[in-house]
Amino acid sequence: MACVPAGERPLYIEMIGPSGVGKSSVLRLVADGLPGRVVYFRSGFRKRQWQNLGNSLLSWRRARRLIEFYRYLCQKGVPGNLALRRAAAVTGMAADRSLAGKGNAVLLVEEGPVLYLSSCGGFGDAWKDWLHLFLPDDPKVQTFFVLLKASPEELERRRRRRGRPVKIRQSPKGTEGITPELQAQAGCYWVPHLAAAGAHCIEVDTEDRSVEEVAQAILTFVESPMPEVAPVDPDPAPQWLPIGV
Question: CB neighbours of 155 closer than 8 A, spacing ≥ 6?
């Protein structure tokens, strides 16, 4: 089985983890540790929403899921404009087709499709066919998912230290009833499925490690030669019959 150094291919790196686990801080250090590469950041589904929507509409599979997830959120009472932004982020963020053509570029995703879908209850066997949404369409892009973990007590301490005010929302956003524990379960559900589909996944416990140590563990993993894995298509295209058959 051939191994391909990460430096020879464009990279898609998505962070998975609850609020307070350190995704933003770690991602900045990971970016600093990739000299010589063109680094792009994605954070928040409000940013580049029209690009996400365009990416979704370029693929029949993504467009179908875009409509399904939009309807799913609207049924939960999410306003239409917010439902569309969130649906577009889930279905289109990983499909940035320009990434594959930029050689040594890296797309670093702080909050991406896995997190957005999971935070709305999207995990488990009923959602297994949605796996392809998390993976770039171009096989030249080497894909990494980083699951960051910490105990509930440590996460709460970090949130208090950060001191961000609690947001009061006037309308549903689709995440109601999804506790941090359920989100953690969602990450643990998706990671082995992503690995089976050809992505490279790593789980990092941040409990007793500095941000620098966590970032270095991720960089070591990303820069190691990775075996080529034959991906499994979880949502194959339909077989169309010729007209008249």
Answer: 18, 19, 20, 21, 180
Does residue 138 sit within a domain? yes
Residue 103 has a pLDDT of 77
The strand pairing partners of 148, in sequence order, are: 204
Among the residues of the chain, which ranges form H helices? 23-32, 49-57, 60-75, 80-92, 113-119, 152-162, 180-196, 211-223
Does some domain include residue 152?
A: yes
Confidence of residue 97 (pLDDT cuts 50, 70, 90): confident
**What is the pLDDT averaged over residues 196-224?**
93
Domain of residue 220, residue span = 3-44+104-227
Find the mean pLDDT for residues 15-27: 87
Tokens of 8: 């020879």
Report the distance separating Cα 162 and Cα 241, nearest Å.
58
Q: How many CB atoms lie within 10 A of CB 33?
A: 16
- The confidence score (pLDDT) of residue 17 equals 84
User: How far is the C-alpha of 190 from the C-alpha of 134, rounded, in Å?
Assistant: 10
